[in-house]
């Protein structure tokens, strides 16, 4: 068994020719070498390694749902996203991107943390990301509930300084406390501002939607200088003009993209703990991500995928594809047409 696994991992290492230099890069295991329904269910059927040595980009899971306020289940998110990712091919036609020829990518597995103690979990996630990104590797994270973005942003700040943020989310996640707790999935961006993680002049929240606790729910972000775009402002529109504005805001500074899957309408992404009707379409999500191409992106996540509520796997499938989109817009990925 062991030798079969080694063989499979080795087979997905390919030689690519870039500028006349022969270099060895990882690539997804091809469906012509192993049926796509088979093989190890790593993210995009990439090789798995324990750390980010030699990597430009890593896929990493954070299987946490202890920060969830109502319907739990996101601890199963990374595993299900990997499962659905096995159908994704290695090139992106619309972007003219073949990311595995340009950067070295692997799946580095999941972060382990104390799922019974959120403040401790936050410290453990921060420490894990400090290590993952110490060599400049860009993490593409599979959540996990939105609590995890706070410690990831702490690590980003310590590495890159305060970052710009493109947040897609039905909820602002800027509450001070939930049931008296300061760490939960409704508080990460308030904590991130307090820690100094964010350049508040370069923060945009896109897709705010649904019922609120109070009419002031979006005010805290506005008071920090965030650009706030509700889902209703996006209805029936292309988001390309918005993204032109966002590119101007972000400039050349470091940018983090956090995608809460509940920003999407439940018709596209039902498998999440706090769905809200009237959300963004998947085409609008693609416009946002493709509109962020060529920004100085230092990390991305897709969070709040909850497989127990994802009966047809659509939500995890969508999340897997969003992560592939994120890979294809990273710095260093060439446009081939
Ligand atoms: Mn959220």
From TrEMBL:
GO molecular function: agmatinase activity; guanidinobutyrase activity; metal ion binding
Keywords, sorted A to Z: Hydrolase, Manganese, Metal-binding
GO biological process, one term: putrescine biosynthetic process from arginine, via agmatine
A Pfam short name: Arginase
Domain of life: Eukaryota
Binding residues for Mn(2+): 146, 169, 171, 173, 260, 262
CDD domains: Agmatinase_PAH
Cofactor binding notes: Binds 2 manganese ions per subunit.
Cofactor: Mn(2+)
Family per similarity comment: Belongs to the arginase family. Agmatinase subfamily.
Protein name per its UniProtKB record: Agmatinase
Taxonomic source organism: Littorina saxatilis
